Amino acid sequence: MEPFDPQRAEPGRYPRLEAALATVNRDFAATLPDQPPLRLMVWEEQVYVAVSDGSWHHNGLQEPDDDAPDALALALDLVADAAQETVTERLWQAWPVCPFHKIGTHLRPEGTAVDWEGWNDGDSGRLVWWCRGGTAGGCHDLAPVGELGGALPGKERRASRRRERGGGRGRAGEM
C-alpha cells in the first residue's frame, strides 16, 4: 500500500469537477466568508473535495465521462454532496444553513416535495439547496447550487456581493 500522500489536483486535469467546485465555492464564500476556498485533492486515482488544510471526509470521486448524460450536472451533484459532507465533518458545522430557519439544507432537484425519497432516473431540474423548514413546516428551495449568496438576507447578501467584487472583508477566490 502506498503511503498516505494526497496531492492537490493538477489544474485542468479534472475539468468538470473543477467547474463544479468553482460553483460550490461561490456558496461556500457567501456563507462562510472567513474560510479559505475548498480544493480538490487526489490520492490513489480518486479525487476528494477538501478544506484548506487538505483534509476531507467522503468517498472519492471520479471525473464524469465525456459521454455521460449531463456530465456537468452529475459533477455538480457529486462535488456539492462531497463538499457538504467534508464541511460538516471537518469544520464541525452544518453547511449550508438556511438563514431563515437556521437549520442545515440538503441537495435536491428543484421543486421536489417534502416526501421526496431520493434520486431516480426521472429527476431533472437544477440542483438546489433545500430546507425542511421550521417545526410548522414551510419546506422550500433555498437557492440553486452556486447562487446561495442571492438568497441571503439583506445585510448578509450585500456583504457577500462586496466580497465578490473585492471591496469587502473576506478572501480572494481560489480553487
Would you write up a description of this structure?
With 175 residues, this protein is an alpha+beta fold. It has one domain (7-165). It is 28% helix and 15% strand. It has three helices and six strands. The chain has a three-stranded antiparallel β-sheet with strand order 1-2-3. A three-stranded antiparallel β-sheet has the order 4-5-6, with helices on one face. A hairpin with an 8-residue loop joins strand 5 and strand 6. The two termini are 29 Å apart. Residues 169-175 have low confidence and may be disordered.
Any idea how many domains?
Answer: 1
Radius of gyration: 16 Å
Terminus-to-terminus distance: 29 Å
Shape: globular
Going by helix content, strand content and strand pairing, the class is: alpha+beta
Brief overview:
By secondary structure, the chain is an alpha+beta fold.
Supply database-style keywords.
175 residues, alpha+beta, 3-stranded antiparallel beta sheet
Topology record:
Layout: E1 7-8, H1 15-31, E2 39-43, E3 46-50, H2 71-90, E4 106-109, E5 127-131, E6 140-144, H3 154-165
Helix pairs in contact: 1-2
